[in-house]
Amino acid sequence: MNLWPILLVFVLFFLNIPVAFSMIISALVYFVFMCEGVPMDVMTQSLLSTSESFTMLAVPFFITAGCIMGYGGISSSLMDFCEVLTGHFTGGLGHTNVLLSTFMGGISGSSCADCAFESKMLVPEMEKRGYTKGYAAAITAASSCITPIIPPGICLIIYATAASVSIGDMFLAGYIPGILIAISLMITNYIVSKKRGFIASRSHRPTWKEIWPQLKKSVWALILPFGIIMGLRMGIFTPTECGAVTIVYSIVIGKFVYKELKREHIKHIIVDSVSSTANVLLILSAAGLFSQYMVWEQIPQNMASALLNLTSNKYVFIMLVLLFLFILGMFLDAAAALIILPPLLVPAAIALGISPIHLGIVMCLMDTIGGITPPFGVMLFTCMSVTKVKLVDYIKEGWPLIVTVFLICILVALVPGISTFLL
């Protein structure tokens, strides 16, 4: 079993070579120099086949819908609604931050998009209200872990495609873990805010007369996640068709209901969505080529056998997977990990009686948590680049929040019913 390409990938990571190019280079080195007789057109086909999947069209559709909603005023109306609901609590804007990420999960589905949006919109306001920049950035990054778990999370779609499981089931399985993380982060935020003296953003509990106008304004965004789930479960449309319908819905709401979507926004929406989509699909294509190397060397079968020989206890297995994914998530983009790893882990999990849906939620959670931890966390870098916060301040202020998310992930891993209850 030739493991040199895997070693080369990590060497390239540490040299700051982008994830996609690291995997492409390593796979090409293997097929050109270490494996004779493989035609170049086979490698080209492997590179392109992943992105040609009809199901994967759901990814650019939902990314585009998220961009449209950002420019169309839907995201900002949700933020106002969250602030009305939670602003009177101690640490009110921190609660708003968490609650907004929960609702954004049903809109953008992207942790990076949510992290970038809230870093721009909420962190400066939190600083004005007395929060330290380190804590404001940390809770923004931590709460972005919720977004890809709440349907239609991009991570859920990618895993379901790679593991050949139902996207609708993955969507349903994400609700309870996502809400559980949100509640836990709000409790942690309350405790920290109480100790640190972070005051409420509103002086009084909201009345129904204050809530009702914001609820009416935000209802068009709030019903979207439930519409997606109902449409998929009732067979009205496929996940890809659902993404297209969401784009049309967001255009109509942004243009005719909120009336904030303008013609001049079209260029920015196209640039933002194409840029984000290209980044994801390039990683997926690179992972597809790299996975061909692993299949060629029978690494999935060997790893599954090794894990089964190591332990026959499914709880020990899931904890080993947690540790492995946590470390890997610090270095590898979540999209790449969710393409590469399911063929490695799903066969062993099924052999031990672990539901692939449950494993998928655990994998999505752990990969996302890796994104908010040093040294190469994607959301960590997104938040730091937007807010200009120092890494030492981020870690010092944010460790209780990171620990909270990690503990909830362990709970979800050890109690399968949390993710499979709605199935």
TrEMBL record:
The keyword Transmembrane applies. Residues 7-418 form the TRAP C4-dicarboxylate transport system permease DctM subunit domain. The chain crosses the membrane at residues 6-33, 54-74, 134-160, 172-192, 219-236, 242-258, 270-295, 315-332, 344-363, 369-387, 399-422. Keywords: Cell inner membrane, Cell membrane, Membrane, Transmembrane, Transmembrane helix. The keyword Transmembrane helix applies. It is a multi-pass membrane protein. It is found in: Cell inner membrane. InterPro entries: DctM, TRAP_DctM. Coiled coil: none annotated. It comes from the Bacteria. This is TRAP transporter large permease. It comes from Blautia caccae. The lineage of its organism: Bacteria, Bacillati, Bacillota, Clostridia, Lachnospirales.
